Amino acid sequence: MSGPSADFTIIRYAQVWEDADVLVRALEPGPADDCLSIASAGDNALALLAGGPRRVLAFDLNPAQIACLELRVAAYRELEHPELLQLIGSRPSAGRSVLYQRCRSLLTPEARRFWDAHPDEIAKGIGSAGKFERYFATFRRLILPLVHGRSKVTALLQSRGAKERADFYARHWDSWRWRFMFRVFFSRRVMGVLGRDPSFFAYVEGSVGDRILARTRYALETLDPAANPYLHWILLGTHGDALPFALREENFERIRSHLDRLEWRLGSLTDVLATEGADAFSRCNLSDIFEYVSPEVSREWLLALVGSCRSGARLAYWNMLAPRRRPDDLAERLLPLTQRAAAEFAQDRAFFYSAFVLEEVRK
């Protein structure tokens, strides 16, 4: 039951690039729930705490991602909300190293060693420290200016109605140069080398750039760019007034007050499930874990999850480029919540995904 053969020692994602508002609405974690979550950079595991679940267990194969989660937990404990935003990079700051020093004693020795060795990443904001964020920074600094100037980007991010957004996109944004540069930069080859990892595309078919371009148009026309934190970071390198769920002020104290219910573990999905045993979880945030493996391995993982989840448990996960859903032979054990998932996906601001999947365990 192996996953992709990528390097899992660097920070791949310094932020979580899945819309936590979609996740929280779909899973509806509450006081009776035990949650399992991919750790990644930690944002969505923390977002699950806002609902006050009994437990959130975050896991990841990559120790660098666990270090990202640990520093966020320390920041929620030690800093105030405006300081947290500064440490992440959502707000400007010349004192991030001081903020880090305040959090440092709360880290495990492993996480402390990791972040002590990355002072430049801390100074820039820990939300920009990943390979994926550097990929977007390259797009923002080198590619986007060849197509649209800063004033055009600012105009794009202004709030306007759906008709006005479509008109702006058609008249001012959707040039041949935009389409050409986008398809090249977000191609399988360029994204594999600079953004993700070539092994992540092993099960992807068709044109990557065309598919992401279509989803980007949806985000710019149908959804409101002014309220999209993921788009803001890609285009500006900061969040501005658009913040993801875990970083919004109204969620800060709710998350902080439940930090004692969060635990984390270095290891694979199968390692965690084997340790936890049967009926351990009722809510699962699985990121886009299944699209990096074959349909056969994906089925094995889903079957293992069914065994470790209680009846009525919900599994939430995304497809970016490779389609993954419950196979037909698990129809009696996993019920697709298709309408609910489609309604949430229609509001998904992390626009590069092709599908959001929500399934319910039946026993």
Element-level helix/strand string: HEHEHHHHHHHHHHHHHEHEHEEHE
Helix content: 40-55%
Number of domains: 2
Structural class, from secondary structure content? alpha/beta
Name the CATH superfamily assignment of the largest domain. Answer: Vaccinia Virus protein VP39
- The general outline is globular
Question: In words, what does this structure look like?
Answer:
The chain is α/β, with parallel strands linked by helices. Helices cover 47% and strands 12% of the residues. It has 18 helices and 7 strands. The two termini are 24 Å apart.
Please render the helix and strand layout as text.
Blueprint: H1 20-27, E1 34-38, H2 43-49, E2 55-60, H3 63-78, H4 81-88, H5 96-104, H6 109-116, H7 119-124, H8 131-143, H9 150-156, H10 162-173, H11 176-185, H12 188-195, H13 208-221, H14 229-236, H15 249-256, E3 262-266, H16 269-276, E4 281-285, H17 295-308, E5 309-319, E6 334-336, H18 338-345, E7 355-361
Parallel strand pairs: 1-2, 1-4, 2-3, 4-5
Antiparallel strand pairs: 5-7, 6-7
Helix pairs in contact: 1-18, 2-15, 3-5, 3-6, 4-5, 8-14, 11-13, 16-17
